[in-house]
């Protein structure tokens, strides 16, 4: 952490002449935590990134007169955000709403503002580190309204900034003044480094995700529970229509194998209409964020056997809460792998990670990711993950006992695979004693041949 009041633990040199800069104050006008400074030699005023979040690696210096940027990392989006924010400052009077839980004279500020949901959430996960390691400091969390309900218990104050997350990259003059005023109210203020990719060993999601509604009546008797994390700005398919066809087919395939399936849709947008067929369909999509809906989504994530979705921050909480994840990764996102995955802190064996977090790579619009491969992968996970996990532990455990929690899953899937991957599979004289009826095999065959 970095001390920022009453003194500032920071030194820097003028990018023009190398003189030690005079630090005149702190500027926190949004997601950036900056130092305000002036060069005693050439008289130029600069803003400099403090080593917080992404600026830990790529701090930027900005000339306050010319808006010229000095940096060495060529971290394009990060540099551009600062310059654009500085040149387009927001004059509207927007200040945080303070939720105060207890008095503290010495505080640590965790700035979770960002222009991306995923970045904000990942910064928020740093709060636990300070609650546990720095109990002598009151933790004050600067957070967009959309994440207030995820701030863990034990913080001194929540400073709720009432703007949409995507607006968090802007430069708010009113916030800058408000923060400077805040700093004078405490004996000492520190700033969290707000690591942008915290290790799964330093946070425990249940401390962030709580007060969820009881959904047991809705899912009673349903198994497995498969959740699709839906979005319309990054599609599974060339168009919304193509995505709709994919989702309908996926649901149909899974419901043909698992008669008691519950298929849940969460996410923003309602343009794709999915028709209920055999299995229970629970559609919780919405057009606009609200806290109750978010809590409902998280309640379903917590009981999901598998969550599927296109790569992106929509997969962060599902990956951290559900038993397993299947992520569809567009070609252009291959460089971002794992940035939208929250691992369980309880992983002891790296093989558990490979079991529970699966990826299917496709072209840039995922039009070549067939529903058959997604469905078969999900079936494999549902049917066999538990047994694989057992075998991984056998050498380190006294017990060699293993029982499936849902033995019918492995039977249904084994039967389906044996038929599907048998060249004579659609010879319906096969011994069809299972719940996979001729009707459903025909449906699956039709789905296969349509692709
Ligand atoms: Zn200078």
CATH class of the largest domain: Alpha Beta
Q: Report how far the terminal alpha carbons are from each other.
A: 54 Å
What is the molecular shape? elongated
**Helix proportion range:** 25-40%
Q: What's the CATH H-level homologous superfamily of the largest domain? A: Glycogen Phosphorylase B
Tally of individual domains = 3
Number of strands: 17
Helical stretch count? 12
The distinct ligands, each listed once, are:
zinc ion
Percent range for β-strand residues: 15-25%
Secondary-structure blueprint:
Blueprint: E1 2-5, E2 22-27, E3 34-38, E4 45-49, E5 61-63, E6 69-70, H1 76-87, E7 97-100, E8 106-111, H2 117-124, H3 127-133, E9 138-144, E10 157-161, H4 173-183, E11 188-191, H5 216-219, E12 225-230, H6 240-257, E13 262-267, E14 280-283, H7 291-303, E15 306-310, H8 316-321, E16 325-329, H9 350-356, E17 357-361, H10 371-394, H11 407-420, H12 438-450
Parallel strand pairs: 8-9, 8-11, 9-10, 12-13, 12-15, 13-14, 15-16, 16-17
Antiparallel strand pairs: 1-11, 2-3, 3-4, 4-5, 5-6, 7-10
Helix pairs in contact: 6-10, 6-12, 9-10, 10-11
